[in-house]
Each structure stands twice: as C-alpha cells, then as structure tokens.
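Good morning,

Both structures are done.
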Amino acid sequence: MATSEPIAAAVDPDTYGKSGDTSKHLDGVKKQYDTKEKLEFYAQVMGDGTDNIHFGKWDGIDLEEAGAYGKASEQMSDWMLNLALEVAPNLQKMEGFSYVDLGSGTGAAALRLTELNSFIAKATCLNLCDEQNSLATTRAADKGLEKKISVVTGTYEDCPFEDNSFDLSFSQDAFVHAFSKLKAFQEAYRVTKPGGVFIFCDLMCGDGPGVSDEELATFANTNMVNDWLSPEQNVKACTEAGWKDATFVNLTSDIRISFQLMLKKVDQILERGGDGIGLDLLEAYKKNLSNRITQVDRGVFKWGVVHGKKP
C-alpha cells in the first residue's frame, strides 16, 4: 500500500475533529472560514483581484496572467449557471427568476451573476458565517444590488425558506462541510420549485489505487468533513432526495490547477513576509497544498459538479 504525507497540518482536535455533534461541527466550520485572518488569506490567495474565493474553471485562462485565479473562480460561477440553464432552458424565460446560493460565503457568485444576468430578479445568499455575510451585504449595497440580493444567516441543512421558493438552488464548494449530505440535498429539493434545477460543485472522496481509508479519514477529520462521499455516492444521495437525472461532471483536472496556483500565491506572500497573515498559517497551508497536488494525482480527491432537476 502506498504511503504519503499527512493530508493536513496538525489542527486542534477540539475545534476541528469529527465529533458527531451538529452544533460543534457548525462551530468548527465557522472557525475554519470566519476569522479576519482566514478572510484575508482567502481574499489574497483565491480572490486574486476579485471577491470570488471558489475553486476555478481554467479553460482558456493563461496561468501566468495577473489575476488568473480570480478570473477562473468567476468563470466557474458563470459556467455553472450556464449548465443549469442547459438542464432547464425555460428557466431563463421565466418572469421573476429567483435562485438561492446555499453556503454562499462572501456572496461573490450571487453578486456577479445578478449583475451580469438581467433575467435574475432575486438572489438569496444563505450562509453560516457572520463576517462573510456582513461582507456580502456591504458589497451588494456598494453595487446597488441590495433590492435584488438578500443575505440570510443559517445552514443549508435547515433552510429558513418556504417550500418551492426558488427556481434554482446553487452551491459552490460548500456541501463538503454538510453534516449530512442527504439532509442538505433534501432541503435543496424542498425549497426548489417543480421544474427547477439543483447544481453544486464540490470536493469529493476519491478512489485511487493505494489510497487507504485512513488517509481519506485524516482529511475528513481535519477539514470539517463529516459526510465524505464519492461522486457516485453524491449522485445516489441526490436521487434519494428526489432529484431527477442527477449527474456528475468530472472537473478534477481543474482543481489540480487551482491547488497549484494557490500554492504559488502562498509562496509569494511568504516571500513578502506574510502581508498581514500569520506565518504559521501560511506555512500550514503551504504544506497542505503541496500534499493535495500529489493526492489529486493519486486519486485521493475528485472535484466536479452534480446537477439534477426537480420533477
């Protein structure tokens, strides 16, 4: 059996360890993303001149150009919306089109998509983290979109919305932290209108040769991953939740590039002395990202999109 470096640098098990307790799990997710230092890290390493801090879609992007990562992140949001409209072309023609971003982070995808697509009448950002939500609210107001974008604090496993509220349920790189994937997919189904679409992208469990259960568990236990599913298992859970024609689109080659560019950014920030980010945090991420690039090659991770339609 192949050996490898640990998937993650050491973390506080009292904060990040898999606990089986929903409240503790949610608190750990907040601590992973919603401190000022973490917000600054993600803005510099993944935002790259934009507000979007998601993994990227790299088709046609020069990896050496300024702001490459930010452009790829935005391109991924655009690509996902276009795919959703291919699944249900009538949605774009509907009056009063509304969608919800489940686990919206800083709201960057909603801000971009609403600004660029006039058919979107209303976008709702549902997100757990208070600091991120404050940023999303401020940025929506700065862009004059406060009447079209609302920001709600909460969890996608217990959505504070009525049944059949949205034409599209959308999520980027957030369901990896679901306490129960099935529950999250059921909630997305509940709040989506009949004929509507569910689409999400996420990091998923791989099945490469020589990858041990222990290695997979190590990643899960240090990254607030309680329900670590493969693409096939995610599709099965979506189908069980009620989604029709649930399909996985494999984009794993793109996440390898994302990890490479993130590592390059971290190295540049370290060379400049940290740019206000703690050196210990940067060194931990450097180690993690170096490991993840080789782990993608070994099949520890997959990344891609799952989409389905509500009958």
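Second structure follows.
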Amino acid sequence: PKRDLPSHARTAVIAMTIAQRLVECGRLDAAARLRAYAGDVLVLRGLPSALELCRVFKSLRRGTDFDCDASETAFEERERLCRAFERDDGVARLFRGIFDEAGMDGTSTYWDRPRLRVQQSGSGVDDVSNSKLFGTGKYSSTLPPHRDTWASNTMQQLNWWMPLDAIDEGRTMCFFPDLFDRPVPNTSRGWDFEELRSKRREGLPYPQLPELDRDAIDRDKGMAELLSPSRARPLLVDPGDVVIFSGAHLHSSVVNTTGKTRYSCEIRSVDAGDLREGAGAPNVDGEACRVPLHWFSNVDTNEKLGPL
C-alpha cells in the first residue's frame, strides 16, 4: 500500500531540491537521511572500515580469477566466493565499523545482511523473472532497472553500496534520476514475497523481485526514452568510499562488457525513528501487498524489526 509522509516530514523533503547528485557526507545523521529520502545520493569518502573490507575481500578472493567472460566460469565458483564473503565474521564486524564511522545509532538502526556482487564481463542481464536461477536470487550480478521499495514497501530503506576494487563507467551501477519522483510502470501490484518463499520451497519459478512493466513502457514512448541507457547516470567512486541512497531510487547494474569483473558489496538499513514518524522517501508507484519489516534486524540486539 502507498503511504504518504506526514505534513512535517513532507515539507522537509519537498523544501529540498531533488538534485540527484553525489553529495559529500561526513555523517549519516537525521538531516542527511532526509536528503537521501529527497533523492540525494550521498558518499562517505575513505572510511577506515571500508578500506579494511577491501583488503579482507582481496584475501578471500586470493587464488580465484573472474577477469574472463562469464561463459568461461561456472556459477558455483561465483557462488562459493559470495558465500565465503557473506558468512565471514570479520566482514560482519567491518560492516558494523562502517555504520559506527558513519555515526549510526545502533539502538534505532536496523539492517539486513551483507551481499557480495561479482559481475563478470559478458554476463548479460539477470533473468529476475525466475528465482530458480542465480542461487534462488541470492547471488544476482546484473540487475535490470528497479526500485528496492517495489519489494520492501519500506520508504525509510537506505542502500549502502561500495566497490571492493576499482570500477569504471562500464562496470558499476547507475541511477535514473529523472524518475526518482515519477511513476514508472512495474509489476509490484502482483508480486508477493510470501509467494516467492513458497515457490522457492517447492522448487518452482517466481519473479525474484518486481520488474518494469515492459508492455506498458512500450506503449509510452516518453517513458521508454527516460529509461534508455543514455538517461542513466553511472556511479564512479573509489574503493573505500561508501555510497548511500534511498531504496526508492530507480537504479540498475551497468551491463558489463569491459573484459574485467566488478566486485562490489552492499547492505540496507532502516531507522526506526524515521519509520515511527513517517519520514521517508515518496512512494510514487510501489503497490506490493506486504511490508516485510522482518527483513531488518537491530544492529545492537539482532531483534527483528516489527510494526511500530
């Protein structure tokens, strides 16, 4: 269901220009979160824990080489590296360090789990219509345009993204800033997380996440133009930089044809105070039937987030 901001939060958001630019940020305090909800893409430069995470990743990757066409590598090799990274206790501690260095309050901050993306050249775009692929959706590498909030329905969700090695315009992620506050045809109305879980248990295909409604977009030339690659804005930052943006941003992976692999990681957070007060990004087109707050656990206690 769509949820409007209360008047005080809505005024704060509307008063800001949705500039869709990369904004230097020292701490992710309440004012910075409001900027992110309004569409700014924030960056914290050279965090010590993020730099150390890059070094830890290189150690985990030692002996594996993915700088070849995706057709030359078995999926299981990529899956093995993702599992090792995401289950490593040291990785978890460093993500907590990143949150601490960003000034996050562990009592009110909830997060999901770290994810590693290994995007090889020539891998094409993931078929997100079939959750049986890509490790039941856990190890995606090249995602098509989407808003995370089409699935989470949580307008306070912030995405934390960082490269673990050098990136360039041909192997990174990108935003569609013209569409942050504009409805985009999508399939969220018919998508149900509980149905996804059920189909996974049965070994049956189901969309991994809500997608663009391609039929509706094909009938709207203006929308098709706004979704063209020429309107996307690639993200360029250095290893050790952490980018924070609203899950309501329309974003995707840049299709990698560079001959080199992109290594990046991410995690998502929700501030319970913002959730309680209704301060968050605008919901312009999300219509999923659930709000799965239980995806997020408290940074300090690991207690699941529930309705407030």
